[in-house]
């Protein structure tokens, strides 16, 4: 489909809105060339006339056309932004009329809608004003604004309790037993790289020690530790002990408020590993079924069964963790609304403290995409998410962090639900971009945050374990940017 821009270049924003309606499309971009307005196209036009920008969007799809217009005074504050927003709304209305779809987040295509709501609350807007603002400016449905507001309220106190000198320590273990078909992380299946793990653990310990010294010099301290990946429990109990032990030895953990290890795949969980994790200081683990339907698990390439998930969950309970998180995904291939409902109901019955409901996002790197299936795009994810929202709300869970990704099934979102007091600080702080995250390990990305001066910088580790092992010196060099960042403050 062609996108034709006249008098503007809001390419990125327009493409984002178009993808809400026709996600699998490729768009051809044309500028100042109205002769391209043939076949399927969207014409996005701004003309200046009598001190006003005359904005027009005309869309043609499968022989049907829709056209909408508006104008914006050239003396309007933030004129460019206003034109862009207006054109996006016109485009949304035209495409909605042509496709019959009404994406519930409106023209919000960014990944952090709650950050927007938090900002409006901090400006003193009432809930009623925020609802109206989200409706008229972003065409966001009341239902989605409601969930964003609930999430913002759940975060309020936890955001206030943040110390600017603290940071979250992220430890990346980029290995998994097998690769799930929807995965687009850098994680490697251990079939191919088991030999590399001992060397990886050794080098990770060195990086931890170096990073801890650097953090001490800058005067920052960790208030949370988060082991993710990958599947950290792909490591053996002794390897986990080595890494966790090095963290304890190198960092000052006296002000730690939260320590999490993602056990992730139930097929990697053993009593010995869980006991080691607990003994070494973690109070929280994630055991993630994604679905408790064995057919779905097979279809997405997870080599474990629902029964193995229940066993791992009970094991974690018996070891005595403070919080057990479980992740599930709406919109998986072969899943149905009935089977998804069953997954939600069973997790609530299990009394999981924290249930994260993801919506499948088909990223380019995912094997699912390479295999050419569009099942996920056809899946009734919105219906599933609605069910989870209703059931979790009535069962004492509150949404506490929320984010969106590109190309999510039915334009939904990911939401972390928790019982009161069981929220994950790390998840909130990383999502709202209010705290520095120091990452160690392959694929880790350090995010340096200075809220006072509105600065945000990233330092990337090498993505893949092989590069990580080869390029260690360079990576350590990059880490020195942490010190530079804090010196400039
Ligand atoms: S467990 Fe997670 S990181 Fe590992 S392959 Fe599956 S989706 Fe990817």
Question: Mind sketching the topology for me?
Answer:
Elements: E1 2-6, H1 11-21, E2 28-31, E3 41-49, E4 52-61, E5 64-73, H2 79-99, H3 113-122, H4 127-138, H5 142-160, E6 166-173, E7 175-176, E8 188-189, H6 190-193, H7 197-218, E9 221-229, H8 237-250, E10 258-264, H9 271-279, E11 284-287, H10 294-299, H11 306-319, E12 323-330, H12 337-350, E13 354-359, H13 367-370, H14 375-378, H15 381-394, E14 398-403, E15 414-418, H16 425-432, E16 436-440, E17 445-450, E18 455-460, H17 465-470, H18 472-479, H19 481-488
Parallel strand pairs: 1-2, 1-3, 6-9, 6-16, 7-8, 9-10, 10-11, 11-12, 12-13
Antiparallel strand pairs: 3-4, 4-5, 13-15, 14-15, 17-18
Helix pairs in contact: 1-2, 3-5, 4-5, 7-8, 7-19, 8-9, 12-15
The structure holds iron/sulfur cluster.
What features would you describe in this structure?
- With 489 residues, this protein is α/β, with parallel strands linked by helices.
- The chain folds into 3 domains: 2-99, Double Stranded RNA Binding Domain, CATH 3.30.160; 113-155, no CATH class; 162-329 and 424-483, Alpha-Beta Barrel (TIM Barrel), CATH 3.20.20.
- It is 43% helix and 23% strand.
- The protein is built from 19 helices and 18 strands.
- β1, α1 (11-21) and β2 form a beta-alpha-beta unit.
- α3 (113-122) crosses α5 and α12 (337-350) packs parallel to α15 (381-394).
- 44% of the residues are buried.
- It binds iron/sulfur cluster.
The portion of residues forming beta strands comes to 15-25%
Q: Under CATH, the topology of the largest domain is which?
A: TIM Barrel
Tell me how many strands there are: 18
Q: Structural class of the secondary structure composition?
A: alpha/beta
Radius of gyration computed on alpha carbons: 24 Å
Q: Strand sequence of the main sheet, in spatial order?
A: 14-15-13-12-11-10-9-6-16
Oligomer: single chain
Mean pLDDT: 92
Sheet of most strands: 9 strands, mixed
Inertia-based shape: globular
What is the CATH top level name of the largest domain?
Alpha Beta
CATH architecture of the largest domain: Alpha-Beta Barrel
Bound molecules: iron/sulfur cluster
Helical stretch tally: 19
Number of domains: 3
Unreliable segments of 5+ consecutive residues: 369-378
Query: How far apart are the first and last residues' alpha carbons, in Å?
Result: 47 Å
Percentage of residues assigned to helices: 40-55%
């Amino acid at each position: 489909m062609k996108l034709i821009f006249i008098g503007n270049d809001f390419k990125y924003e327009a493409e984002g809105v178009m993808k809400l309606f026709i996600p699998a499309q490729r768009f051809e971009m044309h500028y100042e060339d109205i002769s391209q307005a043939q076949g399927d196209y969207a014409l996005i036009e701004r003309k200046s006339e009598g001190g006003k920008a005359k904005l027009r969007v005309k869309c043609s799809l499968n022989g049907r056309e829709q056209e909408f217009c508006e104008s914006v005074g050239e003396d309007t504050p933030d004129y460019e932004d206003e034109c862009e927003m207006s054109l996006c709304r016109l485009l949304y209305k035209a495409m909605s009329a042509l496709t019959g779809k009404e994406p519930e987040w409106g023209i919000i295509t960014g990944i952090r809608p709650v950050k927007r709501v938090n900002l409006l609350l901090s400006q003193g807007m009432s809930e009623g004003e925020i609802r109206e603002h989200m409706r008229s400016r972003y065409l966001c449905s009341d239902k989605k604004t409601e969930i964003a507001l609930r999430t913002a309220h759940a975060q309020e106190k936890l955001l206030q309790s943040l110390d600017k000198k603290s940071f979250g320590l992220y430890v990346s273990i980029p290995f998994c037993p097998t690769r799930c078909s929807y995965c687009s992380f850098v994680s490697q299946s251990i079939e191919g790289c088991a030999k590399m793990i001992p060397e990886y653990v050794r080098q990770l310990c060195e990086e931890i020690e170096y990073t801890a010294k650097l953090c001490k010099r800058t005067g920052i301290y960790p208030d949370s530790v988060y082991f993710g990946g990958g599947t950290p429990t792909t490591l053996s109990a002794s390897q986990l002990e080595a890494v966790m032990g090095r963290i304890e030895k190198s960092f000052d953990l006296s002000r730690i408020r939260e320590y999490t290890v993602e056990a992730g795949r139930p097929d990697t969980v053993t009593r010995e590993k869980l006991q080691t994790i607990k003994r070494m200081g973690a109070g929280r683990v994630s055991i993630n079924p994604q679905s408790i339907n064995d057919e779905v698990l097979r279809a997405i390439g997870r080599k474990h069964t629902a029964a193995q998930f229940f066993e791992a969950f009970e094991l974690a309970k018996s070891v005595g963790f403070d919080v057990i998180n479980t992740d599930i995904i709406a919109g998986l291939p072969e899943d149905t609304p009935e089977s998804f409902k069953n997954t939600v109901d069973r997790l609530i019955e299990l009394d999981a403290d924290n249930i994260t409901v993801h919506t499948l996002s088909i990223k380019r790197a995912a094997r699912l995409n390479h295999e050419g299936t569009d099942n996920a795009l056809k899946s009734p994810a919105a219906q599933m998410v609605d069910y989870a929202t209703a059931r979790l709300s009535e069962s004492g869970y509150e949404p506490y962090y929320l984010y969106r990704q590109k190309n999510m099934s039915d334009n939904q979102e990911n939401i972390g639900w928790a019982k009161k007091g069981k929220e994950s600080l790390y998840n909130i702080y990383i999502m709202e971009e209010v705290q520095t995250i120091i990452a160690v390990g392959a694929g880790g990305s350090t995010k340096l945050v200075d809220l006072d001066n509105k600065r945000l910088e990233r330092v990337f580790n090498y993505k893949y374990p092989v590069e990580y092992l080869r390029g260690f010196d360079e990576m350590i060099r990059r880490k020195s940017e942490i010190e530079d960042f804090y010196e400039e403050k």
